[in-house]
Design brief:
The protein is an alpha/beta fold. It contains 12 helices and 9 strands.
């Protein structure tokens, strides 16, 4: 099967490209060109067809869609960048998706269309008993969720054979710099994660599963990946030798995250392999020899991270 994968060299896309190749598909990778995407593309060499372009470019999209059997649409501007540049995000997320749908419908025969969406669409649900189900109502709480609601509606309105996958949180299996966004999730929020490799497996397995088409699915790591944000961040930081951060550094406002009912998607797609503990161990292992120096750097690392929290600064001000 010939697959067009948008955002092919991004966080989820790179794992999906590898899994599609593993399953024997021919992969056309469509992504914007920069130093990072070029480096990722180089890892695949001539095993993939690479088209550099932007989903906002109608001509580039028409070329990318031509001759493909299925489109997996991952390309998007996500938070926090979608909050910082909402109009750019709308052009990419909504108009870019529109361009792909129109190009797909102009083909004969038209390709199938798999849209990547998000569990953020359920809004603030901490007051509700988990898990969230695909039949639950959706709410826009920021530009990104507004965009995804619009995209889901556009996909369903087409004549294409389509499916929509709403992803749970997908951690980067990498050592990443701290970002202020980490403090905008309250610690008792329920959160479900999925290893990007397992998500890639779900996406690739969907191409061989007739039952997924024409429906919306929740895709998450399952019971072994259902935790609180306190556990999520605390265990990751502890595994890296930094330790949990004080409660006063975090917001008490609601956040859009929860546990999901993935029983049916797992039954059909058989993708849930890694537990949250597996994810923590894999990320911590990336420290390598640097783990021996963590005890020395720990006070400086904690101080640097806490400086990013407006809530910690306010707490310290009141204490002073």
């Amino acid at each position: 099967m010939k697959v067009l994968l948008t955002g092919a060299f991004g966080h989820i896309g790179s794992y999906t490209t590898a899994e599609l190749l593993q399953q024997g598909h021919r992969v056309r990778c469509f992504d914007i060109r920069n130093a990072h995407t070029e480096a990722v593309a180089a890892r695949f060499g001539d095993r993939v067809e690479v088209l550099w372009g932007d989903v906002r470019d109608v001509a580039a999209v028409q070329e990318a869609v031509s001759g493909c059997d299925v489109i997996i649409h991952l390309a998007a501007v996500i938070p926090p960048f979608s909050n910082e540049q909402p109009e750019l995000a709308r052009q990419v997320n909504v108009e870019g998706t529109r361009n792909l749908l129109e190009a797909a419908q102009s083909q004969a025969p038209p390709p199938k269309f798999l849209l990547a969406s998000t569990f953020d669409l359920f809004g603030h649900t901490r007051h509700l008993p988990p898990p969230r189900r695909v039949t639950d109502p959706v709410f826009a709480t920021d530009p990104y969720t507004e965009h995804k609601i619009a995209c889901e509606a556009m996909v369903k309105a087409t004549s294409l054979t389509w499916t929509i996958f709403r992803f749970s949180d997908v951690p980067h299996i990498a050592l990443r710099k701290a970002h202020p966004l980490m403090y905008e999730i309250r610690l008792d929020s329920r959160i479900e994660v999925i290893h990007p490799r397992d998500l890639a497996l779900a996406l690739a397995n969907a191409l061989h599963c007739d039952a997924v088409w024409g429906k919306t699915w929740l895709i998450g790591g399952g019971a072994r990946c259902q935790i609180t944000y306190r556990e999520f961040l605390g265990q990751l930081l502890t595994a890296m030798g930094i330790g949990a951060l004080p409660d006063e550094a975090f917001t008490t406002e609601e956040y859009v995250t929860d546990w999901l009912d993935t029983e049916e998607s797992q039954r059909l797609l058989q993708y849930q392999r890694a537990s949250f503990d597996d994810i923590v161990r894999e990320i911590a292992a990336l420290l390598g020899w640097r783990k021996y120096f963590v005890p020395l750097a720990r006070p400086f690392a904690r101080r640097s991270m806490l400086k990013l929290s407006p809530y910690w600064r306010e707490y310290q001000r009141h204490r002073a």
